[in-house]
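lol forgot to send this yesterday, sorry. struct tokens for the thing we talked abt
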């Protein structure tokens, strides 16, 4: 195959896997898009390390050139690294004409995320939401999907300051003390209360890592039904029932100096265009 374009979803955490190994992520209609062709690998270190990992796994060369066409803001909690890794994995498999099942692709993407240093858990849940859409609840340690559910595609406003927070910066933190609350949050997911779980997840991690309380409070004042930090953050999300209300809130935050992203939840899977 001469070329391929891959579109993968971004997302936010409903349950971060740092403490128990169980995770959940929900997909956003904000995409990472890459073009790939046969050729010299790009200089981007994360992409190059991923291609090297894949070439070793499949005993082939890594001559795949991957170019980012549309990207997700990095380091704010929107699963940009997982989306990019999944895009590279899908591109590589297509260019090399390697056919494997979807769940194997997700495991491969999680292993690649560990190998390229962009994740400390493999982020299997993030890869699943990026590839499948909707809410994906996973066993990140066992790299398996527990369930995938359709969700309401409500408007979502993401706001953030210039601050960034890399997942790799958390690798030396001990999250074992959070096990009880994360076990309880996992039960909440089983009851279908994923939005409440996502909010609690953001507040728990925010209590350890810092959270923009002003932005969360302002989200509620601007009409959001739910608001919290996007997983480890530092971005803050607001869930709205009305798109116009979300748009007005976006204008308000922009006037306050925040970067804003107005999007929605999505049940759509990744898209692959072949040439």
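and heres what i got for the seq, position by position
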């Amino acid at each position: 195959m001469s070329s391929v374009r891959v579109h993968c979803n971004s997302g936010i955490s409903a349950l971060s896997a740092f403490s128990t190994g169980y995770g959940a992520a929900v997909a956003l209609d904000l995409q990472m898009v890459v073009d790939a062709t046969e050729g010299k690998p790009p200089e981007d270190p994360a992409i190059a390390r991923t291609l090297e990992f894949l070439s070793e796994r499949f005993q082939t060369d890594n001559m795949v050139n991957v170019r980012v066409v549309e990207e997700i803001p990095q380091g704010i909690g929107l699963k940009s690294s997982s989306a990019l890794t999944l895009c590279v994995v899908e591109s590589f498999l297509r260019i090399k004409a390697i056919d494997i099942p979807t769940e194997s692709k997700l495991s491969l993407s999680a292993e690649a995320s560990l190998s390229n240093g962009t994740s400390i858990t493999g982020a299997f849940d993030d890869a699943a939401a990026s590839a499948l859409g909707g809410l994906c609840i996973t066993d990140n340690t066992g790299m398996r999907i527990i369930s995938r559910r359709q969700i309401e595609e409500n408007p979502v406003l993401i706001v953030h300051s210039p601050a960034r927070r890399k997942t790799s910066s958390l690798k030396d933190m001990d999250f074992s003390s959070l096990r009880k609350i994360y076990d309880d949050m996992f039960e909440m997911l089983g009851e279908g209360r994923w939005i409440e779980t996502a909010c609690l997840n953001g507040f728990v991690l925010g209590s350890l890592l810092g959270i923009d309380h002003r932005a969360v409070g302002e989200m509620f004042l601007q009409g959001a039904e739910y608001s919290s930090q996007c997983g480890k953050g530092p971005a803050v999300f607001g869930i709205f029932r009305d798109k116009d209300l979300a748009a007005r809130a976006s204008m308000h935050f922009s006037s306050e100096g925040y970067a804003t992203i107005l999007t929605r939840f999505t049940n759509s899977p990744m898209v692959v265009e072949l040439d």
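The radius of gyration is 18 Å. anyway ping me if u want another try
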